[in-house]
């Protein structure tokens, strides 16, 4: 059985974005295991006493039920360049703990900091993040990501970003890009220049 994962930001001993993590986890349990019962991570996760106010990653591994919860210190990776890689058959529509397919693609990044995965000519995600592009007026994220991240869903709901189908050939219409995931805040992320997407 494939286990799934939620990666939750913990800062100042607080859990972030739990509403969206709860939704994804319970939707996954319903879709993959036909389980209707609602699990509330707010009630399940106990932040250990040794945790400081620094940034941590809380990893919740689960299947039909929660298997493991662990806390790991986290530092945000600086990503300034992306290598374009094509993977038409990749499927990561659920946040599986097993990332073997993505890790194989990551070996193709060459001198770049990360990869930008193209599926059927459409831009999807990097290895660790959803991506958004700025066209001079608006921030736009691909309509068909590999995985609908929790931060992505929150920013769409807040109307900070919007969805559009973005083909690889559309890159030239954008000025810059930015990565988003559960561990980072949108406005704190550095911009990636389009010319650094190779």
Structural commentary:
It is built from 4 helices and 12 strands. The chain starts with a strand and ends in a 5-residue tail after the last strand. Helix content is 18%, strand content 30%. It has a 5-stranded mixed beta sheet with strand order 10-9-8-11-12. It is globular. With 198 residues, it is α+β, with helices and mostly antiparallel strands. Strand 3 and strand 4 form a beta hairpin. The chain has helices at residues 18-33, 41-44, 100-106, 150-157, and strands at 4-11, 14-15, 56-62, 66-73, 82-86, 114-119, 122-126, 130-134, 139-142, 162-164, 176-180, 192-193. It has 2 domains: 4-73, Aminotransferase class 4, branched-chain amino acid transferase, N-terminal domain (D-amino Acid Aminotransferase, Chain A, domain 1, 2-Layer Sandwich); 82-196, Alpha-Beta Barrel (D-amino Acid Aminotransferase, Chain A, domain 2), CATH 3.20.10.
Mean pLDDT: 95
CATH class descriptor of the largest domain: Alpha Beta
Specify the oligomeric state. single chain
- Binned, the helix content reads 10-25%
Supply the helix-strand structural class. Answer: alpha+beta
CATH superfamily of the largest domain: D-amino Acid Aminotransferase, subunit A, domain 2
Query: What fraction of residues sit in β-strands?
Result: 25-35%
| Strand arrangement in the largest pleated sheet | 10-9-8-11-12
Give the number of DSSP strands.
12
Following the backbone from N to C, one meets helices and strands in this order, namely EEHHEEEHEEEEHEEE
Counting H and I runs of at least 4 residues, what is the number of helices? 4
How many angstroms separate the termini?
37 Å
Q: Which CATH architecture of the largest domain?
A: Alpha-Beta Barrel
The tally of domains stands at: 2
Low-confidence runs (pLDDT<50, min 5 residues)? none
